[in-house]
Design a protein that fits this description.
mainly beta, two-stranded antiparallel ribbon, seven-stranded mixed β-barrel, 2% helix, 181 residues
Length: 181
């Protein structure tokens, strides 16, 4: 798989497009921010403490870029919608509190990507594998609050350079609400 690190600035519309600037992203200095994610998880419980979890997750991946051709920082933002699928095993439960481990994967689609004011087409899906350990407190029969450290490895890259392309192994802390059936 070949990934292009070239970004171009275009001016005009339709057939009157003019290339105004072209530079290689490797010549830039990047300051990546921690990705920010929000989501909704749904879990189907099975016997022996097993559960299958999925949902939908929105993630913002952003960076400040100091280009070689300008003294100003350029903002780079990628917006992803992801569908995770994970198998969890609850190995400890006492009252409303439980501990679990899980492993699975996620497919994410970049729905919008911008380098400064230039839109970039990120058409490929981004695939990742993930593993987590978690703590859940049940508020009721189907609703629980959870906290989990999670490690992810990103197999595919985006055309734009991000924290995920520079370091495909990431650690994150998740806090959320889970619906279990």
């Amino acid at each position: 798989m070949s990934i292009s690190n070239d970004v171009s600035s275009m001016v005009g519309t339709g057939d009157n497009m003019v290339l105004t600037q072209r530079f290689d992203a490797r010549d830039n200095a990047y300051r990546h921010h921690q990705p920010l994610s929000f989501g909704l998880s749904v879990s189907k419980e099975f016997p022996h403490g097993l559960s299958l979890e999925s949902g939908v997750i929105y993630t913002l991946v952003r960076s400040d870029v100091q280009t070689r051709y300008s003294s100003e920082d350029v903002s780079q933002k990628l917006h992803f919608i992801g569908i995770p699928l994970r198998l969890n095993w609850r190995f400890f439960e006492r009252g409303r509190l439980s501990l679990y481990i899980g492993a699975g994967g996620m497919a994410e689609k970049c729905v919008s990507a911008k380098f400064g004011t230039t839109s970039v087409n990120e058409s490929a899906l981004q695939w990742s594998a993930l593993a987590a350990v978690g703590l859940q407190y049940r508020l009721g029969e189907v609703v629980g609050l959870y906290f989990e450290p999670e490690g992810s490895y990103y197999f595919t890259e985006t055309r734009l350079r991000t924290v995920r392309t520079e370091s495909p192994m990431t650690l994150s802390l998740r806090l959320g609400v889970r619906l279990s059936f």
